[in-house]
Amino acid sequence: MRMVALKRALAVAIVVTLAAAISGNANAEKKLTPVRAAYVPVATWLPAWVAKDEGIFEKHGLDVTLKPIQNLSLLPGTVGRQFDFAASTAPDLLKAVAGGLDVVATAGEAIETKQNPVMQLMVRGNSPIKGPKDLKGKVIAAPTLGAVMHSATLYWLKKNGVDPNSVRGVEVPFPNMADQLKAGSVDAAEGLVPFTTAMKAAGDRSLGDPMLAVGDEVLFPFWISQGTWARANKPIIKAWIDSLTEAKAFMDSHPKETRAILGKYSHLPPAIVNKVPLPTYRFTIKREELAVWVDVLNDLGQLPGPVDKDKLVVTAK
Description:
With 317 residues, the chain is α/β, with parallel strands linked by helices. The chain has 2 domains: 32-114 and 218-311, Periplasmic binding protein-like II (D-Maltodextrin-Binding Protein, domain 2); 119-215, 3-Layer(aba) Sandwich (D-Maltodextrin-Binding Protein, domain 2), CATH 3.40.190. The protein has 12 helices and 13 strands. The chain has helices spanning 2-30, 46-53, 56-59, 90-98, 148-159, 174-183, 195-201, 227-232, 234-253, 255-266, 270-273, 287-300; strands at residues 33-39, 62-68, 85-88, 103-108, 110-113, 119-123, 139-142, 168-171, 188-192, 205-206, 217-219, 222-226, 280-281. The strands form 3 sheets. Strands 2-1-3-12-4 form a 5-stranded mixed beta sheet, sandwiched between helices. The chain has a 5-stranded mixed beta sheet with strand order 8-7-9-6-10, with helices on both faces. The protein is globular, with a radius of gyration of 25 Å.
């Protein structure tokens, strides 16, 4: 009897040990990779918000912390220290690289297209300005001088025979552009939806989308990372891209929930949240999409040093 009892006790111990091992393995499999990401609170970054709130990042093995930042131009210097992924644009990335930083593009986010333009160069409805040549000697409001929208405007002017140095750019936050235009403090403003929607409703007029001077489909904001980190963590980059792709599918099939998440992160009033047009999203990124911006910035004399076009992108797809 003692032998039987001993055998039963041993069997129970084995079962308990196996169960603990299985449970431990399951918990190990559920362990998520911490990822820190910085974004600007506009609709461009909506897929990341959806992926966070709908548990999509976790599904792909990522424990993502999102932090809002107001100035994109400051972010290249923070990757690898404060953030693993950060929002950026081509001029910000390329100037950082030309200045000696090891920063690379890792994932796409939004592109500018003729069918769905996000940027517009706005003038007053009664302005005598009808096209780029009328802007010579004028003052143009820009969200940030030297950033993507102002660089696109200067390139657009040059392609249309206007010396970029003949205009004066002043920095004006998006929400203040309509008032500055109305007051006559500026002659034109580099607007972005949803602000341009309100400006048009108030009678202001668009001269078109300078961003499309760069190409028919133009890389707009995207995600960057520190180069050494990116080269060592391609599986994380793949999980990031896969998460954003799945979030976009959720957005397409759940518009009401998506708009609610947009309101939560952007803090826009419901009337605007429900009507604001969304960008065209694309999460893959290619060398050629950044290479064209190298040519644009070189043409404008904005790059402080050489840039190797072949080393600008480290991605999973």
